[in-house]
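WARN  no MSA supplied for this record, continuing single-sequence
INFO  ligand: adenosine-5'-diphosphate
INFO  echoing inputs
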Amino acid sequence: MTERIAIYPGSFDPLTNGHMDIIERGASIFDKLIVAIAKDSRKTSLFDVDERMSMIEQAVSHLPKVTVDAFGGLTVMYAISKNACAILRGLRAVADFEYELQMANMNRKISANIETMFMMTSDKCFFVSSQNVKEVARLGGDVEGLVPPQVLEKVIKKFDS
Ligand code: ADP
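INFO  complex generated
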């Protein structure tokens, strides 16, 4: 039987418990899940790609089906290059839905063979985003419980200096 491979693309700047929830649930459905850091994101980042990659690798080390990678260019082209059948995405709010609907349709237009699959955020994570984690940490707030422990340490250090 062919392996069911999915990619989970995003900026992960930094990885949050919301991302982890999607990764853990995704890993229970697919044979392989590749967490893929988008290098060409237009968002300005706090952590460089290597820092993000190493934080994610540590956080997913207990999940044998999960690997971490970085990619440039079109997500669909990257998915094809990895023999993936699906792009996994998470949905938090209505605002996510509108953006994701457009992206999913655009991606389907580029390649009809790659399906975008959505998972609803869990109740503990619906308000968590990389953006608000950074904002709270920048202003001296506590982000414990919103990011994995390895990430917490790095976030605190970033805003300490
Ligand atoms: P963010 O939107 O937090 O800056 P990314 O661009 O790295 O993060 O997001 C990658 C994917 O993870 C997107 O599909 C996004 O909707 C999803 N995601 C991010 N945070 C959560 C969360 N708390 N619950 C569910 N999905 C999430």
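The chain has six helices and five strands.
INFO  checksum written, moving to next record
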